[in-house]
Every structure is written in C-alpha cells, then in structure tokens.
Write a structure and sequence with these properties.
Blueprint (H helix, E strand, L loop, with lengths): L2 H29 L4 H14 L4 H20 L15 H27 L2 H26 L7 H14 L3 H12 L12 H16 L8 H32 L1
Helix pairs in contact: 1-9, 3-5, 3-6, 3-8, 4-5, 4-9, 5-6, 5-9, 6-7, 6-9
InterPro entries: EcsC (IPR024787)
Pfam families: EcsC (PF12787)
Protein name: EcsC
Length: 248
Amino acid sequence: MSFIQKLEAIAIDTYEQIINRELMAWKKKILRKSGTFERMSKTAQNKMNTFIPKKVHGVITESVRNLVEAVLKGSKFVSKERDVSCLNLQQKDQWVKETIVTYRKTAVIEGAGTGAGGILLGLADFPLLLSIKMKLLFEIAGLYGFDAKKYEERLFILHIFQLAFSGEEKRRETLDIIEHWNETEHTRELDWQEFQQEYRDQIDFVKMFQLVPGIGAAVGAYANHQLLEQLGETAMNGYRLRILSEKE
C-alpha cells in the first residue's frame, strides 16, 4: 500500500468514526421520551384534528394509500441509475446532502405556491409533497448504492419514511427494524392504514395552517422546508446504519 493509499484509508476510518458519533446522537434524539411541552402539543393537536374537515382527512388518507401502492408496485419513483461503486461513504454523503438541498428548495416553492392559493390549492399540496418526498428517498437510495427496483429496497424506503413521520412508540419500533434490516427476511406486508395514520398525526397540525388565507404561503414554505429537512436527515442516517452494519 502506497503512502497516499494509507492516508486515504486513515481519512476514511476517521470519517466513519465521526459518522458513528453522529449516529449515536441521532438515535438518542429518535429514542428520547416526549417532554411535557411535546405531550401538551400532542393533546392540542388531537383536539384540533376534531375540527379538521373530513374532506381534508380524506385527501391525506387517499394520497398515502396511493403512495404506498405506487412504491410497492415499483416503477413510478425509480430514478436513473448511477454508478457510485467508486465513491466512499463521505463522497456519497456529500452528494446526498446536495440532493436534499435541491429537493428542499422544490418543496419550499411548491408549499408557498399552494399555500397562497387558498384551500383548494392547499389541499393539493398534500399529494404533491408526498411525491416530492418519495422521489427524494428513491434518489437517496440510488446514491448510496441500493437498487430501488428490488421490492426489499422499496420496503426499506417506506420504513425510512415511517421513521421520519411517526409517533414516539412507532419510531422506536421502526428504528429497531432498520438497525437489524440486514439480519432478517422482509416478507411482512406494510400496514398502510397505520402508516397513513402515523403520518397524518405528525403533520396535520402544522399543515392545516397552510389552508388559512393570508398566512398559507409562509406556513407552506416553512413547513415543507422543515419536513424535507427531517426526511433527509432520517434517510441519510438510516442508510448510514445499513452501510456500516454491512461492513461490520
């Protein structure tokens, strides 16, 4: 091994040590118990949900059902193939971060536009945002070298989504599945009704303000920025867990 190769190997080892520390901090955040303020916010959210029109709930439910079906069937979100076999984890991470920024900007523009258009366009934001989120996840899977044409990989993508947008108990359960993904067979079907309920419970309270005239554009832009940031962080760390687990 040449001197340059030794330096590169040291750099890779150092970067992976940094990633392991980041993963520990991220998992601690995922697994922490809800504080008093969060529990109060959840109670307020549940109360607010009773005032949300059935039409809104219906739009979200149907959008999520269609999304799960499209992902499991396969072809709709599969991105173009990229050869990333020559890239190390640090290089993949950088490409993924740049991709998250691009999709986040798209979501912000879309959220501001639909939020400014009143209740009908505000409702249209739900399926549009879901599509943006899922395209991002498929893109990230490819950049980390996983083939989303495979059913198992598409199922993993849905678990990443669920980890990003679920309540405390479901987050713990889903993180455990992701951490041990390489050790088990994945034949169990996803419960899309539970999937959509968890998603609705996590985003309803914020996104409802997007339907309010006068503030919808600002709320839509901010909410979409935060939601894409949250999803991107979850996806990056989910795939990092798999990659480092495979190396071990």
